[in-house]
Amino acid sequence: MSEKTVKIGLLGAGTVGLQVARILREQNRELSARAGAKLVLSGVAVRDTGKVRPGIDSALLTSDIDRVIDNADLVIELMGGLEPARTAMLRALQHGKTVVTGNKAVLATHGPELNVAADTHDASLYFEAAVAGAVPVVYGLRESLAGDRINQVLGIVNGTTNYILDQMSTQGWSYEQALAKAQELGFAEAEPSADVEGHDAAAKCAILASLAYHTRVSISDVPTKGITEITPADIAQAREAGYVVKLLAKAERVMVNGQEQIALGVEPTLVPQTHPLAGINGPYNAIVLETEFAGRLMFYGAGAGGAPTASAVLSDVVAGAGHIANGGHAPRESTYAALPISDPGLVQTRLQLRLEVSQQIGALSQVLQACLDQGVSVASVRQPLVESGADQATLFISTHSASRQQLDAILAVLAKSPLVHRIASVLSVEQ
Ligand code: NAP
């Protein structure tokens, strides 16, 4: 084995960091052989140095992040959040070090700044663990598919929301019941908003879109809607109509007025039961790529968890340490295409509306007229049987493809109509 040594500084020893330290210790011979250099853990930064960290030499623990960075060749950032993660990663990159991170939030917010620092200082930035945990989709897009052209990225990239929707579907639970179960099992945080409101998925969507379309995409470019308003009625209706409800992250190459653009979004979506993403259950992640030459590819696996995420982190460590020992660096940020992001109002989609309407004659025709006035054609109308004497009925309306602007205009008209008591749900429909 090579005599070279690569010193590894670990920032964060929580769920993922502890597993990284464990596997690095237990598999050290093999990982070092693959990297072509002896991998040595040289320091571990944590907030609380008094906490017991099984398997980590207490002499390595410190709360001094800079000391760990300065004493390492390769820095693994697993603290999470924007700060001090951003500052720490910048410091390491500006000193020409290799950085490996699983932090989607910092990449989707400060990615350009970090990539420029890596480029300027001949450093490397790796982030396989930032999207879909163990699933090697970052490598797939950055390297394996560098010879292809991506037309669509469609993914279930948040295991928490997938688990909740799955439990609502299989157990008939409300959103609140399913969330409570997810929290009990450790699939959801006590403060679940980043997951259930779609922000975590939006950060991953931005990272995937940047890689797929060679364009800078930030989390603020991704229109985002979470799953908090999904009800058992939506799920039951979806099933009857041959769909399942999934929180999908979508990044698509589209043509608008003869110009290529990227259409982005994270939202609960009706997915046909025959679609490959419909069968992704529990806390798993899956990403389907539609490519020009390779056709359809699907990446599937554990999207979170200490050991699965550590697997992705360590694949980056082996690659990064190999470059430190033998020359070369991580692939540079690729932004040459610089495609514009589509105006969300012009993005084409199909919607399914669930409306609570008055039983008076004319309610249905008013709804259909609102669609007609916007030039939106209706694909199907369904009204479950109403008890005689009831003063309210439920209407399910599916539209054909139309722009968000047209669909929003329909919703605005319906919201004002005295015959429409409530717009109970609005869901996108995947073709
Ligand atoms: P975690 O369990 O909360 O651990 C965070 C670690 O960072 C803790 O050891 C904490 O120290 C340390 N830390 C936080 N702030 C610090 C500071 N200011 N100074 C020094 N140390 C600090 O987080 P995690 O679940 O392992 O996640 C780590 C990263 O991986 C995040 O970016 C996350 O998004 C990403 N990720 C996680 C998963 C997953 O399944 N957990 C999956 C994919 C990606 P103390 O222990 O002393 O509090």
TrEMBL record:
Gene3D superfamilies: 3.30.70.260, Dihydrodipicolinate Reductase, domain 2 (3.30.360.10), NAD(P)-binding Rossmann-like Domain (3.40.50.720). This is Homoserine dehydrogenase. GO terms for molecular function: homoserine dehydrogenase activity; NADP binding. It comes from Mobiluncus mulieris ATCC 35239. Residues 352-428 form the ACT domain. The gene is thrA. L-homoserine binds at residue 189. Its cofactor is a metal cation. PANTHER family: HOMOSERINE DEHYDROGENASE. Keywords: Amino-acid biosynthesis, Methionine biosynthesis, NADP, Oxidoreductase, Sodium, Threonine biosynthesis.
